[in-house]
Fold these 4 entries.
Entry 1:
Amino acid sequence: MKNDLLLSRPDRRLFLIAGSSLTLAACGSLDKLVGPPDAPQMYVLRPAAPAAQPGGKVGWALSILKPDASDSLDSSRIALAKSETQIDYYANASWPDRLPELVQTVLLAGFEASGRIDAVSRGDDALHADYELSTDLRDFEARYATPDGVPTVAVTIIAHMANARSRMIVANLAVTLTQAASANSVDAVVQALDVALAKAVDQITQWALALPPPATSDTAKATPEPEPAPPPKSARARSPTPPPRAP
């Protein structure tokens, strides 16, 4: 019975070789399963710079704050919407940075390309500014009417201009744009987002540069307080009348 269970030397050698091969094959498959995922394809936003705008240069300085965005858009992933209530992302596709940072860079480049402002910077630079531009990214995704159809991209940016000194908002602008993609592909979606974002930046720069110079709180000259009226002159003190002498 024991001999039946034991393998002969040649059989044992074949068994060990086969076992080693299976182990190596399993390790190779395991590497594919637990190894790092494939690096996503990077896509960059390159909207066309707006043309130089007519008009003279403004005399005020502008600080562009980093845009606010919901958690679904404050990401490096490229968003898509399959319905009004569902947000998803393209697989293996990514922006090189978080979306708010990219849009801030595009806004900065748009003001610089306008040729009408010399002093424009990012809010993080902490440079002197007369106005602060804050924005809110409400929409920046591809929208599908049908699962396999050609999407339409939507870009919505709410802009606020505030006096940098008083921190009071002086003007607001809502920009909503859509652009049909040329095909159902990430490349086509990014190109459509470039077109929509370029139009949005053009509207924001024209609106902002048309604003009047920010109001400065002039230091009011202190009105001198009237001098207090001199006290009424007191009557001359009379010498006290001597008491009458006793008879």
Entry 2:
Amino acid sequence: MTLRSTLLGDVAGPIIQVAATQQYAVTSMFFCNTTSSNSVLQVHLVPEGGTFRNDNKIIHNLTITPGDTFTFDTEKIILDSGDSIQAKADPAGSLSANISYVRVA
């Protein structure tokens, strides 16, 4: 099991990107508002060679209140070589992102 953690910026960027010839199974994602004001989250599953667009969005403008955590752990996500999970927060630096995954190939 591997854990990837980062603070989200207000410009979309990868939280994880699958290495060449590998495959990851994402087991859970946690997004925690570490500020004293609301934060808005967007998350995308971006295929290899793709970009952060509306057609790969899985979380759209989710408001997370101060001190609260949004958990995404019911569904498992399989990512292939070059795929990524990308996210952004408004305001920048207001959300910590923690993703747990395992390499399956």
Entry 3:
Amino acid sequence: MTTTIKVSDELRDRLKVQAARDGVTLGAHLAHLADSDDRRWRLSRLKEAIERSSAEDRESHAIETAEWERAELSRAS
């Protein structure tokens, strides 16, 4: 299904140029932009959650992450 969205001629032209530059359809380009914004939003929520974490929890996470990275590296060699 397709639909029409109202945007200025200038914005439409910008989007078409961007899509053509990347070799995709305008619909695919808009989907990519929506996906990118969804990702940006999720990461900003994650950042906020991390900032609300206690210093003790952040330190615990850092220690556990380092342990997992060492385990992965030791198995790789």
Entry 4:
Amino acid sequence: MTVLTVNGVKQETNVDSSTPLLWVIREQLELTGTKFGCGIGQCGACTVRLNGTAIRSCLTPVAAADGQEIQTIEGLAPADGALHSLQAAWIQHQVPQCGYCQSGQLMSAAALLESNPTPSDEDIDLAMEGNICRCGMYGRIKAAIKTAAKAGSNRTANGTADDLTIIATAKETADE
């Protein structure tokens, strides 16, 4: 029996200890925001946070996470429905295109801002290295991280994912 605390909720699962954490998160816990990309830890789509550190869940055996704190994309925003400052910045800078890499990108960025609230361009490049965006939105990702850093990475933004005001503001900013 493996005991995981995922997004603040204690979960018990009975899987082989060598099962990749990714498959436990997606198939056992039914949290499908974390994506399977390459299966060899090279693309970053499967990134989650283990005790605050960004890890590749496709390479991490569930046994390594036993008794640990795991945060997935579903746990990034507070439970009250407000957006995390990174999510609001992602919308403001129109980062998502196809969206497949976004959960991994956001989790890596959250780990960065937690450990370094005022990252330089070099810090951002280093922290985001290995997170592949097939749509090539690297410039927008960096800009969004800088915006979230200015807002404070642990603060929430006004609004929710359904808040049309944030989306309208993002469109106005893009037009500038």
